[in-house]
């Protein structure tokens, strides 16, 4: 969300206010929902938070800090609700038994079903039920940081503690989360360990801190159950790129029950109408596409949002209009941070595929493709109207094509040879750095190794792009952040930043998530951006692709967005060839685009 939109909303622009509410409601809902683990009070706390945000907006002195300010308000409301619960009178010796999580709103279940989590991501979601209140409160922020929706400074500000204290608390919470993951694993094993079975016969089946400690202790001491601790992928890597849990239907359905209430009526009128009526009024005023997305409980199948196409950076008036027309999603994406991409595969295209009628081709200096070798490379490069391409190598895969620039790459540590560096100098004016060095399955390089080899790439004299991390380029202290700090400390150069991004959320929110990730990286390093791999795909127990219609919609929306960002110099879809039906490939033969290829061919104008 642009600062211009916040300023306009603060000045009383109703459309800008609607845009703010539409974008930030999902973020606030996810923070509160996870902190309260789907308690029946979640809706009330979310609504009270949004009301306080709107009431306080005219007094916000620093519009650029709107997001951290809104998150801090949400956490304050969560703490107030917790204090009220602690001070509430007891029923006999026990707390009110009705003061429990809403059976239909358990946030772990919502995350699993609505985001289609599986494998270790599902284990993480289930493990959150075993944390205490303070850890769940912290988790609600850290989960979004790991997913790329918040940055560490925003987490620190919301907690009202120092950065160092936040780091210590997060490490402790992650340790408790890992213990809970081990418990979830051990309980899921069939047949169950006899000793564990004997212990749980006394358990009422409700996750709790006491039982987490008892069961985790058993998993550490039992030779059979200690396997639950093995092969545990770090939670932050599992959460990278995970989408927000969609806002439930209740927030939009209320509009049909209570009618619209204009926020322009003033704070007194707003309060008189009641908190739920306020939210209903906001959503009634939002564009139908927003309401539809807010009501969606599945990740798939939404229609594409329309993005404004501008030349260069959006002007404030355009930003407000664009914000009002985009689907509501919160940040990131981040960091939306992407899952790993594949090394250049060697599979052949299918023998036949339906021919797609190609729209008029559009050529733009930004639009490019990544491609591995296939028989139709040259023809497809001409047909798709890309201005540049690369192939993860220092050697071009096709003969020179007029008007299509080849950009060489030094793929990994073993690729840093005199022969490859000479080929790169002869092959182009720009050089791409290492391919996903932060992943074992890809270049697999330590920060130190990458820094030690960097002077050899720099000595080519070519314009030099950074290593392209698989994810987390905007994460303080991550692989890429350490690399860039080392570059600065050693006096080396990076001329632009190369990024990869793969979206696991197949809804129309994906474009905003990509945009937020790129924006976060640019804000951190203030260098031009090349998005050298991107598409929609999810890596859960194999590769999961969206429907063709969803991928086509994303192509149209994302290219329009990328064209409008002045600091994005180039972007490249993954990838030019299509190796199987339903993948992200653009061409099944040199002149036969897939549906996705036809959309990309027409994109970028």
TrEMBL record:
Cited SUPFAM superfamilies: (Trans)glycosidases (SSF51445), Sigma2 domain of RNA polymerase sigma factors (SSF88946)
Domain spans labelled RNA polymerase sigma-70 region: 20-85
Superkingdom in the source lineage: Bacteria
Name of a matching Pfam family: Sigma70_r2
Molecular function via GO: DNA-binding transcription factor activity
InterPro entries linked: ASL1, Asl1_glyco_hydro_catalytic, GH, RNA_pol_sigma-70_dom, RNA_pol_sigma70_r2, RNA_pol_sigma_r2
Region (Disordered): 316-358
GO biological process: DNA-templated transcription initiation; fungal-type cell wall polysaccharide metabolic process
Ranges for domain Asl1-like glycosyl hydrolase catalytic: 383-600
Regions of compositional bias (Low complexity) in chain numbering: 316-334, 349-358
Biased composition (Pro residues): 335-348
Signal peptide: none
Protein name: Uncharacterized protein
């Amino acid at each position: 969300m642009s600062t211009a939109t916040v300023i306009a909303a603060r000045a009383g622009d109703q459309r800008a206010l609607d845009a703010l509410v539409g974008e930030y409601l999902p973020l606030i809902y996810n923070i509160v929902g996870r902190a309260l683990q789907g308690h029946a009070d979640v809706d009330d706390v979310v609504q009270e938070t949004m009301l306080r945000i709107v009431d306080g907006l005219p007094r916000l002195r620093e519009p650029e800090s709107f997001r951290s300010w809104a998150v801090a308000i949400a956490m304050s409301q969560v703490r107030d609700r917790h204090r009220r619960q602690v001070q509430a009178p007891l029923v006999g010796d026990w707390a009110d038994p009705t003061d429990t999580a809403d059976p239909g709103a358990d946030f772990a279940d919502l995350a699993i079903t609505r985001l289609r989590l599986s494998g270790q991501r599902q284990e993480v979601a289930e493990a959150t039920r075993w944390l205490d209140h303070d850890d769940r409160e912290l988790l609600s922020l850290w989960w979004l940081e790991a997913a790329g929706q918040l940055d560490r400074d925003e987490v620190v500000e919301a907690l009202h503690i120092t950065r160092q204290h936040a780091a210590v608390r997060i490490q402790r919470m992650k340790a408790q989360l890992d213990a809970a993951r081990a418990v979830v694993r051990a309980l899921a094993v069939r047949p169950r360990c006899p000793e564990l079975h004997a212990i749980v016969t006394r358990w009422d089946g409700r996750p709790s801190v006491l039982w987490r400690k008892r069961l985790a202790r058993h998993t550490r001491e039992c030779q059979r159950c200690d396997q639950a601790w093995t092969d545990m992928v770090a939670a932050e890597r599992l959460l990278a790129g995970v989408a927000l849990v969609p806002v439930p239907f209740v927030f939009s359905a209320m509009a049909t029950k209570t009618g619209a209430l204009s926020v322009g009526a003033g704070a007194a009128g707003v309060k008189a109408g009641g908190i739920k009526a306020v939210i209903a009024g906001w959503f009634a005023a939002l564009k139908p596409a927003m309401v539809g997305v807010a009501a969606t409980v599945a990740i798939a199948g939404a229609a594409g949002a329309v993005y404004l196409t501008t030349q260069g950076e959006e002007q404030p008036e355009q930003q407000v209009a664009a914000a009002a027309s985009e689907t509501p999603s919160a940040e990131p994406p981040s960091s939306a941070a992407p899952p790993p991409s594949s090394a250049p595969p060697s599979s052949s295209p299918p023998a036949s595929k339906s021919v797609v009628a190609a729209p008029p081709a559009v050529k733009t200096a930004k639009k490019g493709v990544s491609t591995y070798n296939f028989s139709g490379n040259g023809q497809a490069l001409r047909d798709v109207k890309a201005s540049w391409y690369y192939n993860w190598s220092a050697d071009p895969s096709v003969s020179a094509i007029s008007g299509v620039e080849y950009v060489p790459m030094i793929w990994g540590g073993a690729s840093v040879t005199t022969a490859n560096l000479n080929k790169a100098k002869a092959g182009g004016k720009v050089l791409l750095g290492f391919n996903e060095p932060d992943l074992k399955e890809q270049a697999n390089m330590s920060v130190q190794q990458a820094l030690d080899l960097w002077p050899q790439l720099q000595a080519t004299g070519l314009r030099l792009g950074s290593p392209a991390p698989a994810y987390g380029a905007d994460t303080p202290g991550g692989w890429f952040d350490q690399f860039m700090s080392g570059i600065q400390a050693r006096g080396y150069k990076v001329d632009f930043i190369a990024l990869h991004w793969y979206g696991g959320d197949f809804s129309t929110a994906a474009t905003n998530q990509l945009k937020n990730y790129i924006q976060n990286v640019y804000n951190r390093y203030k260098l031009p951006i090349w998005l050298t791999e991107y598409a929609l795909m999810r890596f859960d127990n194999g590769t999961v692709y969206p429907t063709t219609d969803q991928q086509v919609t994303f192509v149209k929306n994302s290219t329009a967005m990328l064209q409008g960002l002045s600091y994005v110099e180039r972007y490249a879809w993954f990838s030019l060839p299509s190796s199987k039906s339903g993948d992200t490939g653009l061409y099944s033969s040199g002149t036969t685009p897939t549906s996705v290829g036809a959309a990309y061919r027409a994109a970028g104008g």
